[in-house]
Specification:
alpha+beta; OB fold (Dihydrolipoamide Acetyltransferase, E2P); 3 domains; 5-stranded mixed beta barrel; 5 helices; 5 strands
Length: 174
Amino acid sequence: MKKMVFIFTVITSLISCKTETKKTENTPEASQEKVLETPSIALGEFDIKAGDFVGKEVKIQGIVDHVCKHSGKKLLVVTDEGDVHVTSDVRFEDTLKGNEISLVGVVLENKIDEAYCLKMEEDNIKSHSEGASNEEQFENKKKHIQQYRDKMKTEGIDYISEFSLQYVSHTIVD
């Protein structure tokens, strides 16, 4: 009988604790917590500030300059001050081109270092040897890779960060 009373007491205590927790969570103080807004970054400052938001959502606004014709899953959003590339898991409508949009996305960072340059060189040589690129394309890619190396050497850095956005949502600005 004592065991039954003890078990009943423990169960009652647990239930009352859970009920109390729910009451606490629904208090006016809890509902007045600040809702965090997605920070906005001007495209002219995107490359400078994006490093502080890697892996986090940000909001940008600009004009859709380009929708990728091949996959439809890439956008270039521009203003007079800057631009940003946006990638998505789903296709964008071609009709977005020319519209001003407000877009929310997760900041991605691509680090270009010496290993990345070596891989790009290898891919460039392979592509050219298989006939997928002509001599001009091959030479342009070599120059581009060398520009990365020159920039790292000149600035005394181990890598260059290129930032973009992974699409979350957008609205068209009226």
